[in-house]
Amino acid sequence: MARQPRHVRPRPLLQALIATGALVTGLLAAGGTSQAATQGPCDIYAAGGTPCVAAHSTTRALYGAYTGPLYQVRRASDSATRDIAPLAAGGVANAAAQDSFCAGTTCLITVIYDQSGRNNRLTQAPPGGFQGPAAGGYDNLANATAAPISVGGHKAYGVYIAPGTGYRNNNTNGVATGDQPEGMYAIFDGTHYNGGCCFDYGNAERNSRDNGNGTMEAIYFGNIKVWGYGAGNGPWIMADLENGLFSGVNQHYNANDPSISHRFLTAIVKGGPNRWAIRGGNAQSGGVSTFYDGVRPNVAGYNPMKKEGAIILGIGGDNSVGARGTFYEGVMTSGYPSDATENAVQANITAAGYATSSAGTGLTPGTAVSLRATTACCTDRYIHHTGSTVDTAVIGSGSSATEKGNGSWTVRTGLGSSSCVSFESKNVAGQYLRHQNYRLYLQANDGSSLFAQDATFCPEAGRNGQGASLRSLNFPDRYVRHYDNILYIAANGGSNTFDNANAYSDDVSWLVSAPWAS
Ligand code: AHR
Fold first, then answer.
1. Does the Cβ of 197 fall within 6 Å of ligand 1?
2. How many angstroms separate the alpha carbon of residue 9 from the centre of ligand 1?
3. pTM greater than 0.85 (yes/no)
4. Which member of 64, 95, 377, 387 has the greatest number of CB atoms within 10 A?
5. If we measure between CA atoms, which residue out of 142, 48, 4, 37 comes closest to residue 343?
6. Neighbours of 375 (CB within 10 A)
7. How far is the CA of 105 from the centre of ligand 1 (A)?
């Protein structure tokens, strides 16, 4: 049984701090660890007179005093469930509790609780205009370990939305309806998106159907161009207002909405009577910029709005389930937040310390390693090369010296980025792992910028909770994967055979072990 969430009330002192800007400075000075934070984003919204009416996060508490459950996981082995709470009041999620509960099996995220005290929790989205792929037309639930990161130095998990996945609440309390004003922000993985409809977080129809222009108001993130788009090739933050993703006042193109793809992305949409705005920025540093702030779109049906007040995550208003993305935290407010309030929230976000979790993976430049598969089929197999072909092979103490060398790698500072790594063959000096048409090869470094990019991988905590996963530098939606014992960079659930979602998290997780050849 979930503990009762606490609803934190506005504090006069906090209001004064927002007004003077002192809050932002103080939070930034405090920086580094959200464990020490005394205020969360929803304390800041409340102080600004626009309190949260929904507060969702699998990574951290969004009120300084919140100690209740953040989310619930269900494990496959016996269908038991477990609530995951913050490590301390206002702190980061207790990912270790999830790891221990899900050890030896798999877990799905079943509930994302509402920290606002209004019980606007998100659960498995039901069928609507479109059917989901799960039983009864429901959408799929997210794999609980598919989006590991760290926040303030503590491990946490995001909500990984593969196409077909979606969460919803059609029976909410306190969320804006009609033309009432509201605000919302979310933190997404800005490198994980697609051109499907529609990776949204926010206000939608209560019957999961397309009820016409203006019946929803949600943050959209991705690069679909069917309804609207901004500068460059995307992805863009847009507002999903139903039958239209809007990047500004015009129906299709608005030059001021930039392509934006920070690894941790703050995305903001707010709307009230004939005024709305899009804002965004880097959730790891700096402020948020305004990409649109003005009147409702110059298309019939969006002024006044006819918002219905349901809440969606990862899907369109009519339960379109074609999109992908990753969600870490987000809130919806009552009232139209001021830019100053949102700027203070952004300062709180950057101080929380969102980061990818390469620390502890053991991939230190200058050392030699062997990389062992973690998929149950293949735990005696290592990343190995046969000439220029990169595959996995069984290597053991009885293997030949050549085979041991073919399965050993010197970790080098990334040829294309000093914050990532490259892998040089232990027995063919000057030859590195690189991808070409998504397949891995061993090739000599030709000194080109393309080779450097293709040969660079950014280590993260293993996506199945074991070892390390290796994210491609120039295709950040893809990780090094074995499939039929051949190595690729694969996107979970993508269009190639080797992108198959089945066993993906295991296939992209590698145990870093002592090298067979030193
Ligand atoms: O507005 C874009 C999409 O159009 C909505 O999310 C969906 O309900 C409809 O298909």
1. yes
2. 35
3. no
4. 95
5. 48
6. 19
7. 36
